[in-house]
TrEMBL record:
InterPro entries: EF-hand-dom_pair, EF_Hand_1_Ca_BS, EF_hand_dom, Nucleobindin. GO terms for molecular function: calcium ion binding. The keyword Calcium applies. GO terms for cellular component: endoplasmic reticulum-Golgi intermediate compartment. SUPFAM superfamilies: EF-hand. Keywords: Calcium, Signal. Residues 85-120 form the EF-hand domain. It comes from the Eukaryota. The keyword tRNA-binding does not apply. Residues 1-17 form the signal peptide. It comes from Trichodelitschia bisporula. This is EF-hand domain-containing protein.
């Protein structure tokens, strides 16, 4: 309980004297709180749970790849973000929490950092989309516009049209592949060049 209160108290403090982009845009002052509200619909959490939820590799630590993922840098909406900015994000989190300098953030290091008043900074990249396309559509569009009674109504928003067009395209490709497999055809274009013999 004390740790939760420390974490939430730290949420109200300014990080390194600079206001967060989230706070400036009317979102909760703390990026972690904003992330959990927007991406997981979670409003009550503690630091160990936050760490575990974002340990995508299930190693007990956050690698640079885990950090970039929970900041939404693997999402296609972040395809414009240069590699240098991605590295800056993971480097900043490692600098903030990786006290033994092993290139990863353990749960213990994260919790210790929170107890010292450190918090995850807002890099101005949004709330950190890190689900697959289906999850992101569900949580950011379906729940908002179609989640209530009778919400299925007209699925005519641009997001709906795009989402279901992608479904239809995937189904078309799957049917095409099933037909090729059933016919027993060899798809030469799928064979790596090194296995092809020049005629």
């Amino acid at each position: 309980m004390r740790l939760t209160l420390v974490f939430l108290a730290a949420a109200g403090a300014a990080a390194h004297g600079a206001p967060d982009a989230a706070a400036a845009s009317g979102h909760p002052a703390d990026w972690a709180t904003w992330h959990l509200l927007e991406e997981h619909h979670i409003s009550n959490f503690d630091p160990p749970s936050f760490h575990k939820l974002h340990d995508f590799s299930n190693t007990g630590t956050w690698s640079p790849a885990d950090i970039q993922r929970f900041y939404g840098l693997d999402d296609k909406s972040a395809s414009h973000v240069p590699a240098s900015k991605r590295k800056d994000v993971s480097d900043a989190i490692l600098k903030l929490y990786d006290s033994n300098h092993d290139g990863a953030v353990s749960r213990e290091e994260f919790v210790a950092g929170i107890e010292k008043g450190k918090r995850l900074p807002d890099f101005g990249l949004g709330p950190g989309h890190h689900g697959d396309d289906e999850y992101e559509y569900e949580i950011h569009h379906w729940e908002k516009y179609h989640g209530g009674p009778g919400g299925e109504g007209e699925l005519n928003h641009p997001e709906d049209i795009k989402h279901y067009a992608e479904h239809e395209e995937r189904e078309r490709r799957e049917e095409e592949w099933a037909k090729i497999e059933k016919e027993g055809r060899v798809v030469v274009k799928n064979i790596p060049r090194k296995f092809l013999r020049e005629l």
